[in-house]
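dumping this here so i dont lose it
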């Protein structure tokens, strides 16, 4: 194992601590806001822990999530979008995998060995493969 200098190790650890804080603090803040029962509008100060622990915001969302739209309608819309995106990703991935299998087998079917068209765009399937 390679030995690194102590100052390089300290600098690396400090950079990693800054990156971790940059990633974790916003997530922590959202969680704290979700459980803070003392807030009635926007927060005006930064606190690590909520003043009053409360689950009322979650109950309000289940009662009336967005003006007059019910939670089930919003959930149904989210499911339609996510299932459609997953289906589209599956279809495109399967078609690209099929094209790659044909190209790697040296097939002479409707595609070139290194390129094929997807919705009118010419795509190279040999870019990252050896």
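and the seq i came up w/
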């Amino acid at each position: 194992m390679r030995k690194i200098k102590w100052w390089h190790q300290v600098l690396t650890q400090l950079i990693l601590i800054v990156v971790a804080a940059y990633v974790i603090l916003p997530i922590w803040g959202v969680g704290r806001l979700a459980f803070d029962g003392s807030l009635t509008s926007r927060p005006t100060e930064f606190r690590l822990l909520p003043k009053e622990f409360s689950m009322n915001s979650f109950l309000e969302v289940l009662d009336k999530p967005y003006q007059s739209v019910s939670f089930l309608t919003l959930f149904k819309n989210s499911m339609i979008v996510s299932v459609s995106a997953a289906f589209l990703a599956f279809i495109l991935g399967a078609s690209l995998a099929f094209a790659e299998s044909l190209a790697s087998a040296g097939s002479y079917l409707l595609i070139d060995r290194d390129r094929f068209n997807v919705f009118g765009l010419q795509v190279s399937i040999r870019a990252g493969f050896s």
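DSSP finds three helices and two strands in the chain.
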